[in-house]
Structures are given as structure tokens and as C-alpha cells.
Design brief:
Elements lengths: L9 E4 L8 E8 L3 E6 L7 E2 L9 E8 L8 E6 L7 E10 L2 E11 L8 E5 L2 E8 L4 E7 L15 H6 L1 H18 L10 H11 L1
Antiparallel strand pairs: 1-2, 2-3, 3-4, 5-6, 6-7, 7-8, 9-10, 10-11
Helix pairs in contact: 2-3
């Protein structure tokens, strides 16, 4: 079965950082898998995780060079086949010809607005994200290169992410606590190494 161009939707940018423009065209692959196909050799076709059963994109945009590596990143929110109002925005970066998830964050589909992602400086961005604890959207500044790898970097599916989300948040808190302690922001008596060891043991 040949791939079928389902629209003229495409994204344009210098994704490999060579100073030349590449075009990624939206195409439908067998089994209704969405893909962004480059017009240049040496760059992989970007495949949207089939587990999402995405029908298209709610959001697809070239975000410019967010991480300072010379190439543009793009972001997308899949139009997933579910009834949830909570979705995920993925920021995608091209590394050595391979597409990788540079960062991802949850959003509320009914509260999307621009700018969704704003570059602060190389490695730091401001994002419009969903805060699950507050139950609302908020602007926050994050540094994706300084975070620990999330399981979504391996397989960016929302169901997979949510299964381990609580545990991953605990591990994030561990690294935040240890970083603050290392820089002298908190005293040794203000947190429990026993609790940290227990959470790490559960994670590993």
C-alpha cells in the first residue's frame, strides 16, 4: 500500500542546522499511521506513536532553535483517538539524523493559546502547560536539558506516561531536593534520606 498524502499540511525549517531549508510533509502510512516525511536524504521520517491512533495534529509548529544546537525544533499535539481533554505537547529535535523527544508536557485542549512555547535562552523555555495539581493551565519556565530522562523519551505515549507518572514525579522531587542541598539552599535536617532511598529503590 502506498503512502497517501492526506493534506498539504507541512512544516518548514532548518532542522539539521546546515543552513538549508527542509520540508516535512504530513502523510498517512499503512495502518493509519501518521508521519512527517522529509524532502531530504539523511533525515529519518518522523513517525507519530501508533499507540496514540492520531487522526492528525491539533498543533504543529516550527519553534526555531530552542536548545542552541543550530537546528530548529518543532512541536506537535496529536489529535488522538480518545475523549480526554488532557493531551500532550511534544517538542521534537533532530540529533544525528534521528528524531528525539527533547521535552514534553501536558496541555488542556480547550485552553490552548499562543505562545505555547517561548525561548528564554539556549536550553530554557517558557511553556503554557497543564498543572494537574491545580487543575488549570499555567506559564512556567523549564530547562529540558537539565531534567532526568523520562520514560516518554523512550516511547512517548500518554497511557504509558500516566502509568508511571506518580513515580517519575517522586524521582524528579529527589533530584530537586538533592540539587538544593548541594547548593546550600536547604539544611540536611529538612529532608529524610530514608524516604529518598525508599523512593529510589521503588524506581530502580
Amino acid at each position: 500500500m502506498k503512502a497517501l498524502i492526506i493534506s498539504l499540511q507541512l512544516i518548514v525549517g532548518d532542522f539539521d542546522g546546515d543552513g538549508k531549508t527542509e520540508r516535512l510533509r504530513l502523510m498517512l502510512l499503512p495502518d493509519s499511521v501518521l508521519a512527517l516525511v522529509p524532502d531530504k536524504q539523511g533525515i529519518d521520517t518522523f513517525i507519530v506513536d501508533p499507540a496514540m491512533q492520531a487522526k492528525g495534529f491539533l498543533y504543529l509548529r516550527n519553534e526555531g532553535d530552542l536548545n542552541g544546537d543550530g537546528g530548529h525544533e518543532f512541536s506537535y499535539i496529536p489529535d488522538a483517538a480518545d475523549y480526554s481533554n488532557i493531551n500532550t505537547c511534544f517538542i521534537i529535535s533532530l540529533q544525528h539524523g534521528k528524531w528525539t523527544v527533547w521535552y514534553d508536557f501536558e496541555v488542556m485542549e480547550t485552553e490552548l493559546k499562543l505562545p505555547l512555547i517561548t525561548k528564554i535562552d539556549n536550553g530554557r523555555i517558557k511553556i503554557w502547560r497543564y498543572n494537574a495539581e491545580m487543575g488549570e493551565m499555567e506559564y512556567v519556565t523549564v530547562a529540558p536539558d537539565q531534567r532526568i530522562p523520562r520514560l516518554t523519551d523512550i516511547r512517548h505515549g500518554r497511557v504509558f506516561r500516566r502509568k508511571y507518572n506518580s513515580l517519575l514525579d517522586d524521582v524528579d522531587k529527589i533530584f530537586i531536593i538533592m540539587s538544593r542541598y548541594e547548593h546550600g539552599y536547604i539544611s540536611p535536617g529538612s529532608f529524610s534520606f530514608v524516604g529518598i532511598h525508599g523512593m529510589l529503590h521503588e524506581f530502580l
